[in-house]
Specification:
403 residues, alpha+beta, D-amino Acid Aminotransferase, Chain A, domain 1, 3 domains, seven-stranded mixed sheet, five-stranded antiparallel sheet
Length: 403
């Protein structure tokens, strides 16, 4: 019997549309012999919708289109089963069935930060990817950087503050930033896809950058800008028990600036990666998945043109980052390298990367379908491990309680 795999995507984050693209790619890559992909879309209003087919990107052009092609539902735990229940039952009701496990393909707030993982935990539904704690640590750059620093991993000189304290602590914060040395990168602590990021080359640019970042988060991270910047990424697949690293990619080569949202997802201004040209082939292009190939459309070079010793060092750092954060599933760890000094810094982990970083595994002879198969296996394996662990005790404390 086929596994019914629920792909959760959308959500109310600024990466909503990117999530749709990633999920369509992933669902079209699902092995039809082994599993049935069940699309479970979450609107920006946090409502769940079920599609009885793998949708195209055009079906999300408006909520009217979504409601025309999908059914508003909720996920309900019934004993050991999680079923998909329509919000409104029509006269001739057709059961929508159960799901055996879930693969969250949600980027950013309420999807990549432990929120949806906690929901799946409460349903006792097996799911792929990071658990709630690892997801939350990976999403909050302040928490993540503290863990990385405590684990002696190389991180750029940095500081952070609450946006609401900026005016009252302005001189103190400015002094901390001057100590880092301009230029600096200002970013919201809990966002991805380079949204809300700005570079301040001098103190006069700082206020505007902070105000921009504060629109997205109350925690603001400030990092010293890496000179002669090269952005190198590495994917890690597996669990803390057993994981492997992918080939490396270089993104935005030659710009020495942060790759922004448009260049990441609309593929503007750059050379396509080897093996990524036509990235949607086999991942939904024929079914109208999207004009953009998601993260696979960004300006990138795969494998990254760096020395073998540098490649090995980054892969080792990626694996250690994955392990100390307690990650699982398929992640992408982003690095920054100074092209002159060759200093390498861990920038961040993406616990649900755009396009699930499938394009980095093609070079390792792991195609997108095999990648989804491994995520399914991981979800099943984690559930088996958890069922063997003690999580509660049978007690009679309440029987004698007289409060």
């Amino acid at each position: 019997m086929k596994l019914r795999v629920g792909f959760l995507f959308g959500g109310d984050s600024v990466e909503h549309e990117v999530s749709i693209i990633s999920a369509i790619q992933a669902m079209n890559a699902c092995d039809e012999e082994r599993a049935q992909a069940i699309p479970l879309y979450i609107s920006k209003d946090r409502d769940f919708y079920y599609f009885d087919h793998i949708p195209t990107a055009q079906e999300f052009s408006s909520m009217e289109e979504v409601k025309k092609n999908a059914v508003a539902v909720s996920l309900v735990k019934k004993g050991n089963t999680v079923t998909i229940e329509p919000i409104e039952r029509k006269l001739f009701f057709k059961p929508l069935g159960a799901i055996d496990l879930a693969i969250p393909v949600m980027h950013g707030t309420n999807g990549e930060d432990g929120t949806i993982q906690g929901f799946l935990e409460m349903l006792n539904l097996p799911y792929a990817g990071c658990d709630g704690i690892a997801a939350a640590c990976g999403q909050d750059k302040v928490v993540m950087k503290h863990i990385l620093c405590d684990s002696h991993l190389p991180v750029c000189p940095w500081t952070w503050f609450y946006a609401h304290q900026f005016e009252s602590r302005m001189e103190e914060i400015k002094a901390e930033i001057r100590a880092l040395g301009y230029p600096v990168v200002i970013k919201p602590a809990c966002l991805g896809s380079s949204v809300g990021i700005a570079i301040a080359h001098e103190e006069a640019e700082l206020l505007e950058a902070v105000q921009d970042a504060a629109q997205y988060d109350n925690k603001i991270v400030v990092e010293k800008m890496v000179a002669n910047l090269r952005e190198i990424n590495c994917s890690v697949l597996g669990t803390v028990f057993d994981c492997q690293t992918s080939v490396l990619e270089e993104v935005g080569k030659g710009s020495h600036e942060i790759l922004d949202y448009e260049k990441k997802y609309l593929g503007q201004g750059g050379k396509s990666a080897k093996g990524v040209k036509g990235a949607m082939k086999g991942a939904g292009s024929a079914k109208g998945a999207a004009k953009s190939a998601g993260m696979a459309s960004a300006a990138r070079i795969v494998p990254a043109p760096i020395e073998e010793a540098e490649t090995q060092k980054i892969q080792q750092l990626a694996k250690k980052t994955f392990e100390v954060l307690g990650a699982s599933g398929v992640c992408r760890i982003d690095f920054m390298m100074d092209d002159q000094t060759k200093e390498i810094y861990v920038n961040e982990i993406n616990t649900i990367p755009g396009s699930l970083a499938f394009y980095l595994w093609q070079e390792e002879q792991v195609d997108f379908t095999q990648l989804i198969d491994r995520l399914i296996d991981q979800a099943i394996d984690r559930q088996r491990r958890r069922e063997k662990m003690i999580t509660s005790f049978e007690t009679n404390i309440l029987a004698n309680y007289r409060g």
